[in-house]
Specification:
8 strands, single chain, four-stranded mixed sheet, alpha/beta
């Protein structure tokens, strides 16, 4: 029924601030546009006249999933992200890394807000796993993880 994962959409207050943040994480912007037409919101069931969007991905493979960063301009983005990770709905966006320690240190240097410190554990199959959750500039939850083996 489904073909492949296409993209994940993150709604933000300030597109420029968010794009700069995600670029620091290693994503690159490959497309940006402003949609100044009521159809911009109608296709997703939102009354809006203007939205700004940036498509960002890791690597250059056009078949890989990407992040769609969206700022509603008119009327503006509103509300708050989920207050905790156990809300119903999309919980967090996770990024796999080969060596979590230097990435964790770079995130600390960026002064991101962490949910908890870095955790190291052993999976039920005995493999080491490390992970930490943190927030983007608007408070949406992100995760870095290393050692996850899913086959």
């Amino acid at each position: 029924m489904l073909g492949r994962l296409s993209h994940t959409v993150i709604c933000v207050r300030d597109l420029d601030v968010s794009v700069a943040f995600y670029e620091k994480l290693g994503l690159h912007k490959f497309f940006e546009f402003t949609h100044d037409d009521p159809i911009a919101g109608a296709v997703v069931g939102v009354e809006t006249r203007k939205v700004r969007m940036a498509f960002m991905r890791l690597g250059a493979d056009p078949h890989e999933p990407f992040l769609d960063i969206v700022q509603f301009v008119d009327p503006p983005t509103f509300g708050e992200p989920y207050p905790t990770l156990n809300n119903v709905g999309i919980c967090r966006v996770a990024f796999a890394v080969d060596d979590i320690d230097p990435v964790y240190e770079r995130l600390k240097a960026m002064d991101v807000e962490f949910v908890t410190p870095l955790h190291r554990l052993t999976t039920p199959t005995g493999d080491p796993l490390a992970m930490v959750c943190f927030k983007d500039p608007d408070g949406s939850f992100l995760e870095i993880i290393s050692g996850l083996k899913v086959e």
